[in-house]
Amino acid sequence: MRVQGVVSRVDGECAWVVVSVSGGCGRCHEAGGCGGVNIARPFGGVQRELRLLNDIDALPGDPVSVVVDDAVPLKAALLTYGFPILGVLAGAWLGTALAAGNADLSAALGAGAGGAVMYLVGRARAGGAGVMPMKLERPQGAGAGGCGR
Fold this sequence. Notes:
This protein has one domain (2-137). The longest helix has 26 residues, at 72-97. Strands 3-2-1-4-5 form a 5-stranded antiparallel sheet, with no helix packed on it. The radius of gyration is 21 Å and the shape is elongated. The mean pLDDT is 79. 17% of the residues are buried. The protein has helices at residues 72-97, 103-126; strands at residues 2-11, 14-20, 47-53, 63-68, 134-137. With 149 residues, it is an alpha+beta fold.
């Protein structure tokens, strides 16, 4: 997915980019559509400011394209939902298997512990550097100086 934006400021090796999301793939909002436009507006706003690695040496005011790899939404869903659900199921199974008395209580405790552990594992795998898993590109037809020559 590609979203157009403008660099608002540069801070060290990162650029802050303001993006406006109005469309998507054309089928995003239809039944059975990709829904991929929702990844670009995580909190439901029309404009968002994203912190991205500035590997193209963009300057404030430069128009840029923000590119999201196709695998990012799937990876985010697995880390956010898949790992904790697997942890809950495995923890409940292990709690039941090791139960000495009350199997329900052991299953509940195991489910809670397993979900928490896998949540933390998912967060650790996601990183946490604060830089979004997206990249900047110059818009099509723009030269290094942004004049289009």
